[in-house]
Design a protein that fits this description.
Number of strands: 0
Order of helices and strands: HHHHHH
Mean pLDDT: 77
Strand content: under 5%
Largest sheet: none
Low-confidence stretches: 96-100
Structural class: mainly alpha
Number of helices: 6
Helix content: over 70%
Distance between the termini: 58 Å
Radius of gyration: 26 Å
Shape: elongated
């Protein structure tokens, strides 16, 4: 859910969680099918492909459920609230934290160490 890549943030298919879940499940079914067709030299390779594929099915199912229960709207509200709080409490020249630090520096300058 980090959405680092522009493909994920700009894609109409992958921005909706329900369609993202179906995409993950589709990729998992494809990998299971390809693994069953190809014979691998190692049994551990086959086990790895199956485990990763079933994890993808689980993640896809989770995305579909979260999309159906409108958790994406909740996430949007939480992100907007975070951005608002981040803007309000951003350190700048007139924030209370800067005034406290300047007052502390002034009081430390008044103290004479002998």
């Amino acid at each position: 859910e980090l959405e680092w890549f522009s493909l994920i943030t700009n894609s109409k298919l992958l921005t909706n969680w329900v369609s993202r879940g179906f995409t993950y499940i589709f990729m998992a079914v494809l990998s299971i099918d390809q693994a069953s067709i190809n014979t691998t030299a190692s049994e551990t390779e086959m086990l790895f492909i199956q485990v990763v594929s079933y994890v993808f099915v689980g993640i896809g199912t989770l995305y579909i459920l979260m999309g159906l229960f409108c958790f994406q709207i909740v996430l949007g509200r939480l992100r907007a609230d975070y951005q608002e709080r981040r803007y309000v409490y951003a350190p700048g020249p007139s924030t209370p934290m800067n005034n406290i630090s300047s007052d502390l520096e002034a009081s430390l300058d008044d103290i004479q160490i002998t």
